[in-house]
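sorry for the late reply, my laptop died twice this morning and i had to redo everyting from scratch. anyway the thing you sent over, i finally got around to it. pasting the sequence first so we're on the same page, its 220 residues, then the predicted structure underneath. double check i copied it right bc i was rushing
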Amino acid sequence: MPTLPHLSGTFIDYFDLFVGGMWVTIKLTVVSILIALVIGLVFALFKISNVKVLDWIANAYIWLVRGTPLIVQIFVLYFGLQAIISLTGFWAATWALAFHSGAYIAEIIRGAIQSIDKGQREAGRSLGMSLPLTMRRIILPQAFRRAIPPLSNQFIIGLKDSSLAAFVGIPEIFNISTTQAATNFDPLTFYIISAVYYLFLVFIFTIASNMLEKRLESSD
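ok and here's the structure:
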């Protein structure tokens, strides 16, 4: 078991290296979640549509993501995308993570949309709005507000899931910790340090999401 002086000394010695990995983790998480939000919105709309083919496509996508391990999805998409399109490792891993998170976000958004009273949709139509315009101006703003708490949780899950990008060579926090653990023959020290960085990021993102929720509540 590493002592506290050893942990603190190693933390300081490798601070710059881990901070670089932390920024890669943040970029990987934020970009993949933003893409996943678009994917999730599209498939959520597919699920609530009256077109059976679109509903079937959405269900098949969500079933596939839920039924297979994330690491398998990352490997399949990472190497599959690299074989089809010339992408950097960062973007291939980002799309793989977005594909995974998109399925869960689709269910979050679908539930939020369906929680809005149907009378509001009917009121929009009675004012002469088309269904897409009613969704954009009335339903979706309220749905996204209700979806903030579960979306925040999914964001944190996406942050932790980004550690699996280490297995395809992305120099994020976990990749750095495994590399240095093998190089210095001191695995526990570097894994504890990586845990500290993940806890710090989760703490920051939790505060940010709580502030957003309170701001939306005050605006009501």
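The chain has a mean pLDDT of 88.
thats about all i looked at so far, will dig more tmrw
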